[in-house]
Structure formats: structure tokens, C-alpha cells
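Q: What does the assembly look like in three dimensions?
Context provided by user:
Components: two
Sequences:
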Amino acid sequence: MSLARQRWLKRSMWAEVQRHLREFSSPILTGVDGDGYPVSIRCAPELDEAQRVLRVSLPGWTRIRKGPASLLCHGHNDLLWNLRSFLVRGTLEPAGGETWLFRPARFVPGVGIAGLAGMVRFALAKRRTARRYLQRRGLARPRIDWMLLKAMQARARQPSTPPPLPE
Amino acid sequence: MALPIPAEVEAVFREFRTCEFSTLAADGTPITWPMLPFFRPSTGQFMTTTSIGLPDKAFNIRRNPRVSLFFSDPTGSGLINPARVLVQGDAVAPDEVKTSIGGFENEVMLVYRRQPSGMMYTSNPAIRWFSDWYFMRLEITVTPRRILWWEHGDVFSPPKVVETINVG
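A: Here is the predicted structure of the complete assembly.
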């Protein structure tokens, strides 16, 4: 890839981050702790336009390490609808005290942020991914028991049925 | 085996609609997406699923079982000023595509009750063709190893911690 194209992609990615980040008040930053497990925290990132980084404050309990990290923004309403999400992959580096710099590297759209066209593209792409998953294992595309699902939905709509809890 | 956690933390596991589920990609980047978690008090484990249209979580787990579940968004839970909880643990994601809801009836019912608009994905043949991949699922089981919680949600204060949990 040419240097010019790399620069264009970086500018474009930063613009996406800027555009969508302002719609969410507390993104989730996830890094890796000293034991190698993911560790997440809600944060309030400040955009540093000059350096094209996000400045975040992380408390010491996180034991977070310098290195790969990601930033998730997502939301839903009380009925788990109006889903919206996107993820930014990047790296995390200490900047003194509790301040860290998150350097975005890749914008990954989730659901609900690219309109109807984006939703159609998302569903078709996932349909193709599912087909590849099955093909690589020599499996036929399974049939879904839609009637059974409809029956479950009818039961779920009945207000008199006590809501079940797993186990 | 019951987890050594207070009732208010267990209430979060039961009532939060989503958690932020993190797995580790091949290059070590933690990849986090919202998920619907199901807590199983009898084993102290969490069950969730992912579609084979979104298999990266399962691929990541098969490569590196370290995961986390962050319960940070109480929207829709009905809980007042609940705790926020971070669960770190080890996951398994067997390569078995499930399309039957046998054994998952309670979870499916719970999802339809909590997300009634999700019924649109089965509403007519065109949408069913378009979304059948969503119902081809891989099961993920998470065994907690460390649980951190903040009683009133202030995650910048030091958490309460339960370490090296022996369940599963």
C-alpha cells in the first residue's frame, strides 16, 4: 500500500472516530492486565486533534499494560432495541500518572450506525461468513425450526406466564 | 458451586440486559462487543452464544481462553444504582453449530421477553432468508477466575475483589 493511501486511510479513520464518538458519553476502554486477561473500564476520552489520539484517565487498579487495546461504544433502549455500536482497535501507552493515550488504528462498525444500507450490508456479509464457516467443515446449511421459534414467541407474549430465569 | 459474591452482584448478573464481552484477537488486541449473558448459579458459570456469522469470538477463545465480561450498563435492568461488575475468566467455545433451541428454552424465552422487537427476524420468509445465519449458534461457557465489583458504580475507586475462584 502506498504511503499516500495509508495517510488517506488514517485521516478517514480518524474522521469516523470523531463523528461517532460524540454520540456516546462513556465508551468502554479495554486493555490487557498483568495476568493477560482483558480488563474493561468506562472512560471519558478527550480527543487530541493534533496527535490524533484519545487521552484517557485509568485508575491504578486496572493493572493495565501498554499495548493493544480497543474502545467500544454501544447503546440500547429499555427493551433492548435501537442497538448501536462500533469498535475502535488501537494501542494504549502511558502518558504520566493516570493519563494514558489511546492511539486508534482501525474503525470497526457494529450495528445501527450506518443506516438501512449499512444494516443490509452487515447482514449479507454475515450470511456469507456463515456460509464459509459451514463449507470449511463440510456441513450443509442447517434448517431453522421457524415454527418452534414462533411458538416460543407466542408464549413470551403471554403476560400471565411468569418470566423464566435460566436455572 | 455458588460464587462467593453478595446478592447485589448476583442481581447484576441476572438483570443486566447486556455485558461487554472481551476476547483476545490473534495479535493480542482485546476485542469487545455487547453480548447477552446468562448466569448459571448452580455452576457459577456464564453461558452465552454467538452466531457463525460472527465467529471471531469463538476463534479467539479457541486460541486464547482468557476473556472478560463487564457489566456496566444497567439500562432496562430495573435495578436502582446497581453495582458494576467485571468478571475475568476462561472460556470454551466448542465447534458445534446449534440450531435447535432444545436445552435453551428458558434463555430463548427470556430474550424474547426482554427484546420483543427481536421477533421481527422471524416475521416473514424474506427476512428469515436474510437472517437465518443469526440462528446458527456456537455456545460459549465462561468459568470466572476473578470478580471485581464497585458497589455504587464508581469504577475509579478500588473494587472489591474475589480472586482465584474454583468453580466449573
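Follow-up: Chain A touches chain B through 64 residues (CB under 8 Å).
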